[in-house]
Amino acid sequence: MRRRSLVVLAVVLGLVISGCTSDDSGSEDGRITLRFQSLAWQQESVDANKELVKEWNATHPGVKVEYVQGTWESVHDQLLTSFEGGEAPDIIHDASDDLADFAYGGYLADLTDLVPERLKSDIPQRSWETATFGEGIYGVPFLQEPRVLIANATWLQESGVRIPTPERPWNWSEFREITDELSDGDGKYGVAWPLKEPVSATLNLSLSTGGQLFHRGADGKVKIRFGEADEVVPETIHDQVNTDGSASSSTLGSSGSDTLPGFFGGRYAMVPLGFSYRQQIVQQAPKGFDWQVLPAPAGADGLAQGVSPQTLSIAEDSPNKEQAAEFIDFLLRPENMVRLALGDWMLPTGTEALKDPALHTTEHDWATGTALAAHLRSAPAQSVRGYPEWKDKIATPALQEYYSGAIDLDELRGRLVEDGNLVLKRYQR
Amino acid sequence: MKTGKGARAGQYLALLAYLVFLAFPFLWLISTAFKPARELGSLHPTWIPKDPTLANLRQAFDEQPLLDAALNSLVAAVGAALIAVLIATPMAYVMARHRTRLAKAATGWVVVSQAFPFVLLIIPLFLVLKNLRLINSVPGLIMVYVVWALPFALWMLVGYVRAVPAELEEAAAVDGAGKARTLVSITAPLLAPGIVATALFAFISAWNEFFFALVLLKTPEKQTLPVVLTHFLGAEGAADLGPLAAAAFLATLPSMVVFAIIQKRITGGMLAGAVKS
Signal peptide: which range, if any (chain A) (predicted)? Predict the structure, then answer.
């Protein structure tokens, strides 16, 4: 009886295993098969991607594209393992600030000669720079989003403050004064900074004041310097929280989503968020809640802002790079780029796509964001080797302590620069 | 010694606080799963949804293949649990009953192996599975889960085997039972709660595992539940909270049900014979 049970168990296990073995197929009927790993996650965006793949497959019988659903969670480790194992997808969706290691590591194909001229000229040079590492281009930047101020429109109108526009934005000192004016010192704040990840927000916004932080010398080596231009943004945030009391200290460790209940509940007049957060606001805002998109404050360099666009890359190991490049070209035709942008509530990088009327409507303030597109630059430091370690070990804790008032500006400078240069030195021997 | 009423009340209060602490995330998950989007953005959230909805569940099922993913997870977790226990039980018996140098070294190795982070193992594992043509297959994933669960399963089972008095086996031998008969009729029943607890551990760790499944399974129809759940997450912490909570709520149910069914047997078995009656 017991022996029979064991035999049954073994048979069941055998069936389970044999029933699930891989049927990894290569090309079918001599057709080329390309695997496209997309990180689209919002349903509109997933639908747009899948529809485009379907349209490609219907019109290109010789080259079949398989849609593979990836996820932003742990994408770096997942891709690294796939590259090392020689099983990477042919076409890879990622973000430009994640590409440096893969580009320098030889995992991604240099697209300089693969991308057609149409696409090269359609996407501005400042966007190409986000995916340029050394001499090569390792991704096609196609979607980007500026950081904007999402504001409680009723609150701002009732306060009588000047409403900024992309043509006439607030400057940083004006922004500080206005947030002070909007605060009542009793639980209502002019702004809530969601700074769970303070480094990219600080560095990207500091481009507006001419802050660079990372400076590349003639020898090609990068050094960190923290000058006056780099101080404006962190000092403004610090003073709003610790001196004026016009920014909530409780949101400094929060993500953007975490601040929304307080924003909807009338606790914060403004929240600096990525442009795509509008979708979440549309879904979650109470009925009748009137909100609007305002440009982030400007500095000596106007509305300049750093971004890390979403990118499409080709694996170096792909045997069909040319066909993969053709698919990318198809996916990023102006009309298709618009579909992808609308699906993700982001801005396209392509100049033709940016002219689309759908991106110039006042509904959900698309027009305000589109007006900012010309000011978006490559995020500082994303091509600097050692940046991820500097960000995690040095800059994130230092900025968090500075914003909470635990350390002063001199201490912040010392840690960012002295400790930071030690980290970079290890990567630049 | 008799416990005073005040002390007893304090004990119950502490127990209640601990229960609330443990149950809080799960109750919040249930509450979120049935809230409409506008309630999720409320500054004053309520435990009971004001306007309960099944829209999150519908959306979760519409957007992601949750049932297929759950089936894959179930196959992987059951397969891993069964194989891990089948391998670990005889090994644990030998290690517990024959205290040789080799057994001690093996026990030490089992403990040391727990110190390796999985990030260190994933690339070699990936290459091994690739050579075996087991990438993108649930059996390949089961193999990884077995390897991953085996050291701790072994360590757990050695403890359970040691808790079974060797004198009982000796008594059976004196009564004329052979080794196999002793193992089947004496040791196995006493070891059953330990085997069940070990299988449960292997099942739950495989059911919840994310990273190996993310890296090893490529095609959507083979992905497991934890991987599919991340499709509700975007970059920089953005999330489709309602459907995510609804799907996560469903994902916790099987392990809860399994645990609820067998937890009485585990504790009952562990306590059996603990005191003279």
Answer: 1-23
Ranges in chain A annotated CATH 3.40.190.10: 32-144+308-377, 147-295+385-427
Look over chain B and give the mean of its residue pLDDT values, rounded to a whole number: 87
- Supply the pLDDT for residue B268: 54
How long a stretch of residues is chain B? Answer: 277
Say what the pLDDT of residue A192 is.
97
Instruction: Please count the other Cβ atoms lying within 10 Å of the Cβ belonging to residue A35.
Output: 20
Q: Other C-beta atoms within 10 Å of A218: how many?
A: 5
Q: Which helix (H) or strand (E) holds A377?
A: strand A376-378
ipTM over 0.90? The verdict is no
Cβ–Cβ contact B261 with A under 8 A: no
Q: Which CATH architecture has domain A147-295+385-427?
A: 3-Layer(aba) Sandwich (3.40)
CB contact under 8 A, B126 and A77: no
Q: Map out the domains of chain B with their CATH numbers.
A: 1-53 (no CATH), 54-271 (1.10.3720.10)
* CB within 8 Å of chain A, chain B residues 143-182: none
Between residues 9 and 68 of chain A, which touch chain B (CB distance below 8 Å)?
A: 9, 13, 16-17, 20-22, 24, 35, 39, 41-43, 46, 68
Mean pLDDT of A262-288: 94
* B240's tokens: 């489709």
Report the percent of chain A where pLDDT is more than 70.
Answer: 93
Is the pLDDT reported for residue B275 higher than 50? no
The pLDDT value recorded for residue A22 is 41
